[in-house]
Design a protein that fits this description.
The protein is an alpha+beta fold. The chain is built from 2 helices and 12 strands, in the order αββαββββββββββ. The chain folds into 2 domains: 68 residues, no CATH class; 127 residues, Immunoglobulin-like. The strands form 3 sheets. Strands 3, 4, 5, 6 and 9 form a 5-stranded antiparallel sheet that branches. A 5-stranded antiparallel sheet has the order 8-7-10-11-12, with no helix packed on it. 13% of the residues are buried.
Length: 204
């Protein structure tokens, strides 16, 4: 009689455990994952233990961070402050833009009467020790020749020269024309977010 009672009790307990397990698996209030897509960037901003309000907050925060990292500034220069002679050519910085961690300078190249390769000697001052960082752009590539060889008498507007910056960007960004001119200039950010390209304040 005691064995029968024990078996019945154990059967009831097992049945109760099965019901509880079934409820937890199929009706439990597990959290959901919030996936937000920003162009080619997608990420999961919440875990299964977070509630909906927390997930929404985290997604918003990540959106702002991505927007901040992809923010850009652009300026066009009507009267270039930085112009120099290199060999037989005259070069001027006519525009500047920053997108993410990339600085793009638009350099106008005016050829003289000689057909020759225009060397790209622009460098960025990488640190306080004066180390020089070359641009990601390996050389000038003019549209009519497809090379660094320019056509005599031609003016090439806003040839893009790209530098990779630290993230976050620290202003001013100091550069040198290199070559025989070796002229220092800087890119600074104005209060309205636009950029200025100018000689350093101490330069004559």
């Amino acid at each position: 009689m005691n064995l029968k009672t024990t078996l019945i009790t154990l059967s009831c307990i097992a049945g109760l455990l099965i019901v509880i397990t079934f409820y937890v698996v199929f009706y439990g209030s597990g959290g959901t994952y919030v996936i937000s897509s920003f162009g080619s960037n997608a990420g999961i901003f919440a875990t299964s233990t977070s509630n909906t309000a927390a997930q929404t907050g985290e997604a918003t925060s990540s959106t702002l961070a991505l927007a901040s990292s992809s923010a850009s500034s652009t300026t066009s220069i009507t009267a270039p402050a930085v112009t120099w002679t290199q060999g037989n050519e005259t070069l001027s910085v006519v525009s500047a833009s920053i997108s993410g961690s990339q600085l793009t300078l638009g350099v106008q190249v005016t050829m003289d009467s000689v057909a020759e390769c225009v060397p790209l000697t622009l460098r960025m001052i990488a640190d306080e020790q004066g180390d020089l960082s070359p641009p990601a752009t390996p050389q000038f590539t003019f549209p009519d020749t497809g090379t660094c060889n320019g056509t005599p008498g031609e003016t090439y507007s806003a040839q893009p020269i790209v530098f990779t910056l630290n993230n976050p960007v620290i202003f001013p960004v100091v550069l040198t024309t290199g070559g025989t001119a070796n002229l220092l200039f800087e890119v600074t950010q104005n209060s309205d977010g636009s950029l200025s390209v100018q000689l350093p304040p101490s330069a004559d």
